[in-house]
Amino acid sequence: MKNRRKFWSLSMHALPSFGLLLQGSLYLTTQKFMPYHADALSVTWEELPPHYQGFVLGVIRGMGAGSVAVSLALLIMLFIPFRRDDRWSIWAVPLIGMIFTLFTAYAAYTIDTRTPASTPWRETLGLTATYLAGAVISYWPRRATPRSTSKNP
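The structure corresponding to this sequence follows.
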């Protein structure tokens, strides 16, 4: 890395992207819903009819597939064009990350407020804030380089 700004910006974007990758992988490989899904539906996995289980797993795996796809795309953009200082990637990475995590937080918030479940919508907003912090670091004005005051001809 050329400088600390680039290192911290890349780190602030990579951290939530790896988190999304892990969460998506968990959702893709789960065999039943998460505890907050049970709370939202007020039933245990075993009480859910088999055809509902299939539907719920399909929805969960769809979310997992989206998380894996977005996170892999972001990580590829981070470690190739972002590191090369391609200007488009400096705004595209945080923008895509913030849009995805904001929509995900909104979906989780909807479940949180309309069901008995307690969803991780606040944690998802934390990912959004991390992408935003990375963008701020990328675009923060650079300090002016002090000019030499010596009068050498």
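The helical segments are 4-29, 35-41, 50-82, 87-114, 121-139.
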